[in-house]
């Protein structure tokens, strides 16, 4: 929702118009969104006008200059956003796409401005109001709201003193049946009309000193019984009856409509309509509320416009944010509270079952991941690089590690090896999903909008090298155990009825604990500790390589996109202390939800007919990564595929080089059943995924077909896990 940037002016001292490199850069640079543009920094020599206009890319007839592919420009609206981009969008760090500052109102598009309007703006004729969304409003809310207003109007007429409010409810009943194309105004009532009210024959009374407030005003000089409804006494009596009998019922109904419409997101205009009715319209004196059809009025209207709605459904409300927080994260926050209350209060499963609690706990992880990412981005934007790097590295993987550690602790307490196997499946599922599914899905969705997308192949090459190293290191103990371990089978049958013939064996595995565990404790365990030390060291070397000595490989430039004449100071949504408090609270709630998920996963593992492998590599692995997948899709839609690919690579590298060593370190201080020995299925799936990813990323460009290949391979691997037998120990 950032306005289109103005076209850059050509340089007068070096004509470069028409070069192939500039054409490619212009194609790459066609990006809109809150991140800005994926641009190119061309390092071309300045040539005097007298010399032939030579471009830096003339020698490449069919290729794009290297600087166009390697250089990536991200547009920042202010210094705080620039600091966030420079601190977070680095190699090896998780990319948090949250916008930490408020955007200037005049720089927003008309679509976004409409999202934040108060439904009191009258527009010109916009066509028919009979739309599918408006009909949906009529079916969901309009008919029963109108009926409720009719009933309340009847009650007000019965009370006599509430007749003015009865008339108001009758008008509002017709309004809420179909509010589109109508307006509700706050009008100034002439003093003569205030004094006369219900008096007959147009008899005037002195209205000096009267007030139109809801609960006040001196008594006018009209003392006839049928005129008492407009006197101060009867005004107060009618208001009391209204506040006791009519307003609570209507406020409750509108509150229900408001909550329901808000949760549906696209119906937020209906939520605003109900909220403004409760807080403004129903609290005004009835004589000051005027309901009129828009086509019967003149523009501009006399008096204040309180409500003017044209459509009930707006699909762009997925962009809506409250204090910088996306509306979906706001709507899912009550789910966290429900999960915690049900999980710890209903410990005996009297209200809900364990599968329901497990599902709620997993769904609660998604908004908490969003809040953690928002807090990390806010702290990084207002701090230096060192603080941002420490916060990102510390809390970037807190979601996954919290779940893994709580699962290992529960498995150790119960003596159940199945939890350790589930953790291994989740680790493998995260690795395979981030290598195949995340970049593949981003290529498919981005390729629908852009025919061909290019990315930083050199940076992807560094990530690929680290992935090869990390996969080889993680599975080295597994390969070692296959070579030197003793094969033990649970059940064998002689096929040929010959003692020296062939045997068919089931439930076979390599035993590392033979001879009192000599092989494991003397050979495998030291190898695991060695790998766990080498992998973080390789990760740090990769960071030093890309952030210090070879920064040009992963080069992100931050440019200024202030509109001409606009100079805005950055208004931060969350301060550092507020972001820190939210980060700590979200982490605490994340730990509680992870504890509930592991507490109630046992019935699912025991009673489910689906392989535990499949549960681990899908639900437990990919649900915590849903915010990352959304970020990657948004980057791809903005033609910034480099960051989309880097999101998946960064998570995969962190799984192998940070999360697994941390789990090994945890097992040193807390004895668990976790050993760095994976099943053959995990080894083959991970290695094949990394090889395929490197083959796809070799040329630095892609399209939706290559993304489809990655996604299809991922689904094939999921099918393999689905039909695979459960791991030993489960």
UniProtKB/TrEMBL annotation:
Residues 132-182 form the Inner membrane component domain. It comes from the Eukaryota. Gene3D superfamilies: NCX, central ion-binding region (1.20.1420.30). The chain crosses the membrane at residues 135-165, 240-268, 325-346, 358-379, 385-405, 426-448, 460-480, 527-547, 704-724. It is found in: Endomembrane system. The keyword Signal does not apply. GO terms for cellular component: endomembrane system; vacuolar membrane. GO terms for biological process: intracellular calcium ion homeostasis. GO terms for molecular function: calcium:proton antiporter activity. It holds the Pfam family Na_Ca_ex. Keywords: Antiport, Calcium, Calcium transport, Ion transport, Membrane, Phosphoprotein, Transmembrane, Transmembrane helix, Transport. It is a multi-pass membrane protein. Its main location: membrane. Residues 356-475, 579-721 form the Sodium/calcium exchanger membrane region domain. This is VNX1 protein.
